[in-house]
Amino acid sequence: EVSRNRRCDAVSSSTTDVTELAEIDWDKIDFGLKPTDYMYAMKCSRDGEFSQGQLQPFGNIDINPAAGVLNYGQGLFEGLKAYRKQDGNILLFRPEENAIRMRNGAERMCMPSPTVEQFVEAVKTTVLANKRWIPPPGKGSLYIRPLLMGTGAVLGLAPAPEYTFLIFVSPVGNYFKEGVAPINLIVETEFHRATPGGTGGVKTIGNYAAVLKAQSIAKAKGYSDVLYLDCLHKRYLEEVSSCNIFIVKDNVISTPEIKGTILPGITRKSIIEVARSQGFKVEERNVTVDELVEADEVFCTGTAVVLSPVGSITYKSQRFSYGEDGFGTVSKQLYTSLTSLQMGLSEDNMNWTVQL
Ligand code: COI
């Protein structure tokens, strides 16, 4: 057990002294888990208040077999990234948006949640304690994974009596094995990700287990991922398993509107705001599967994915292709604007980054 004082030392020394990098091959990182030094845990007891969060060495956690999260899926997660700048400073991207989204999800899942301040402070503490795992500039980012779970024991179906907020981190590179090359999607016509009135609009863990089957089938056929349609009409685009979708036609950018079945992505929202600030017309609306035929460009957005161009989409054995073998003009412009901002390569005129 590391004492509380030593835990604090670990954080403060990491902010001042620890400048060296972990010894891994930074040119070879993908989106796989690399164990780091510390994780952060904060418990919430029956009074509904979170308190006394602290760092502890990264490792397995003890959990009651009857925990709400294990039995009834009462859990949420978040994802955000930290980038190392050339001058050594560390940038977080809109962490308070993740905090707010977790609070919204917690309300839907009958869970208490940390305050926005608690969430952001915990993220900062965890990142600084693991500073040596933040990739050098241009080599990737530190992916931050906050979890909120019902860790109290329940047997009958009910909200758990106790909750744990936990953050772990891992250095990551590109999400798709294609790297920044275009991905190939298949429109899913059998399975659905979300239903009206369900939990598709919050980042609950069960949404991700539910897409594994379709994703595995698609991957076995050589596709990068699955594009879901709405379950009522089987006609409107919803999202990909791990990211939101956009189409571009005649320089107008369109993306499915948020209506409870689509995850309100922070990258999605940021891309919309960046695009509008650059004079693009952006429509949040019902986008039909037929519009894929005429689209000039298609791209996906997400924290893990960042902005990924889509090279082709297959729908009922028809294949629609976009561009030759690279980014479309609009996709590329938005990708560059967003990533320059996130990495601190351009001035943050949106006031989105938080420097550590
Ligand atoms: C993220 O983009 O951060 C996500 O949470 C998606 C996940 C499937 C990696």
From TrEMBL:
GO CC terms, sorted: cytoplasm
EC number(s) per entry: 2.6.1.42
Keywords assigned: Amino-acid biosynthesis, Aminotransferase, Branched-chain amino acid biosynthesis, Pyridoxal phosphate, Transferase
Cofactor(s) this protein requires: pyridoxal 5'-phosphate
GO biological process: amino acid biosynthetic process; branched-chain amino acid biosynthetic process
Keyword hit for Amino-acid biosynthesis: yes
Residues bearing PTM N6-(pyridoxal phosphate)lysine: K203
InterPro entries from the UniProt entry: Aminotrans_IV, Aminotrans_IV_CS, Aminotransferase-like, B_amino_transII, BCAT-like_C, BCAT-like_N, BCAT_family
Keyword Metal-binding attributed: no
An example molecular function term from Gene Ontology annotations: L-leucine-2-oxoglutarate transaminase activity
PROSITE patterns assigned: AA_TRANSFER_CLASS_4 (PS00770)
Catalytic activity: L-valine + 2-oxoglutarate = 3-methyl-2-oxobutanoate + L-glutamate; L-leucine + 2-oxoglutarate = 4-methyl-2-oxopentanoate + L-glutamate; L-isoleucine + 2-oxoglutarate = (S)-3-methyl-2-oxopentanoate + L-glutamate
NCBIfam families: ilvE_II, PRK13357.1
Family: Belongs to the class-IV pyridoxal-phosphate-dependent aminotransferase family.
PANTHER family, per database record: AMINO ACID AMINOTRANSFERASE (PTHR42825), BRANCHED-CHAIN-AMINO-ACID AMINOTRANSFERASE 3, CHLOROPLASTIC-RELATED (PTHR42825:SF2)
Name assigned to this protein: Branched-chain-amino-acid aminotransferase
